[in-house]
Design the sequence.
DNA sequence: ACCTCCTTATTACTCCGACATATTACAGGC
DNA sequence: GCCTGTAATATGTCGGAGTAATAAGGAGGT
């Protein structure tokens, strides 16, 4: 969970301290390169329009083969971060073409110092989507959905949000609601956002104490969904996410 | 715009009628393969859990090199469609792991017969996001934003939605609103959905006449945003998307 | 006789570097 | 100014060496 950064700079182990020297077993080389380049782009190290040094040059620079580099570029291309054309080189695309909601891109964005404005945008989007999801969940939830929510709530009572388990329980609760909507597109979207939001929660944990007891607010959402009251569910969820938004905003701007 | 399918089956031109025979100039080979596999997966031709035939086997089957095949797989992996592990082969992941909101995945989903339920999910998500976007736009729009919307509206008056130009104008109008929100995440999301929605509009065009004159509804949205009235803008946009949803639902279920 | 654990062997992905090709940017000539 | 030629660069191809994970088999214990 510590997600120690892919060591691509080589920590002098093995026979030749190449770029792939410090690579673990399950790690794929091109994945590591994609991660390195992705974070570099997301952090603004490469600006849109910038051209990455030539294929061979780059591969030599990183001390990996062209194949590995090429496959990494394919990944970035698939996510809309770069575009490479013969003779012109591989250029960073304008920010609007990036798939900002791709889980991996999101992870890259939060690998370094996350951009405050972007975090705010994300929370704003969440504040739009989740209440609507709660409304739909209230209308469509099955008995199984309710049971899952109840379990997650119980787990939340046992652990605070300061612990990994507690955060996982919170995620489970929200995921259960998403599931109850029966909308695949909604689930995909919120899964991405939820993960990102959890990253920031983790950040927050380091700097200050928890704002308030989150249980009662969650219970209100649950009760409304259980009762099938869409409007009440949306409103209760709105309070929940608004609190998170305010709290995060105040934490990050200081 | 006709988006003629990548001819990967070879139409007997050139010296050897291989898989890449009928490939145009700008087309990348691995892109064509990714498209072929992507549409096959999205259309349900491969079910989650299915394993794609081995690397060498598949490459021979398609008559392309293993490198090209591998790069295509990287693209699919980046979009969460498949996962490949040594010895186990390349498996199709469960649907929940797919990046359904990726523009390319969306395009693949609509390449064949789009799944009705998925289309409905998409419209539902749009009905959630766009009114909220209209509300934000009303609060934050600049003079430039308004001008862009006005231009798009004028273009809509000159062309119906039955034409490509008319649909482009409609897209421009919605994009101008998205831009006015100043929320990058929101823009990325709606750009994807908007494109997909336009695909279905095109489908619809073939089967039946237009439902009603869309101009007045759009003008109402514009006026509310120009007046800075968030609540009115959200409500007007809600009417707009609800109409589209109902219309599409009735068209597709028949 | 059955179950568990460990060892082994196959299998498929992973990575590599060299070669061949195609496309494009750039410059020079018409 | 438009056009064409050339050079630079990314793309596509190939075969092989390396590696990791699964699955099968055998040894030991119950």
Sequence:
């Amino acid at each position: 969970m510590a997600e120690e950064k892919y060591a691509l700079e080589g920590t002098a182990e093995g026979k030749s301290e190449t770029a792939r020297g410090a690579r673990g077993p399950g790690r794929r080389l091109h994945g590591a390169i994609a991660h390195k380049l992705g974070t570099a782009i997301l952090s603004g190290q490469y600006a849109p329009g910038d051209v990455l040094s030539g294929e061979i040059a780059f591969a030599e620079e990183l001390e990996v083969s062209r194949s590995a580099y090429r496959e990494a570029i394919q990944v970035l291309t698939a996510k809309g971060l770069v575009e490479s054309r013969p003779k012109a080189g591989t250029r960073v695309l304008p920010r609007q073409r990036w798939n900002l909601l791709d889980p991996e891109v999101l992870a890259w964005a939060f690998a370094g110092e996350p951009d405050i404005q972007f975090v705010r945008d994300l929370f704003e989007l969440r504040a739009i989507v989740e209440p609507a999801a709660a409304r739909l969940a209230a209308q469509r939830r099955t008995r199984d959905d309710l049971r899952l929510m109840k379990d997650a709530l119980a787990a939340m009572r046992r652990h605070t949000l300061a612990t990994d388990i507690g955060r996982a329980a919170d995620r489970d609760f929200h995921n259960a609601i998403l599931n109850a909507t029966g909308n695949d597109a909604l689930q995909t979207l919120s899964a991405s956002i939820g993960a990102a939001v959890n990253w920031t929660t983790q950040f927050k944990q380091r700097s200050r104490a928890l704002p308030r007891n989150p249980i009662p607010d969650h219970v209100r959402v649950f009760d409304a969904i259980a009762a099938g009251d869409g409007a009440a569910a949306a409103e209760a969820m709105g309070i929940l996410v608004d609190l998170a938004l305010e709290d995060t905003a105040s934490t990050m701007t200081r």
About this structure: Chain A touches chain B at residues 30, 67, 70-71, 74-75, 77-80, 95-96, 98-104, 117-118, 121-122, 124-125, 128-129, 132, 136, 183-189, 191 (CB under 8 Å).
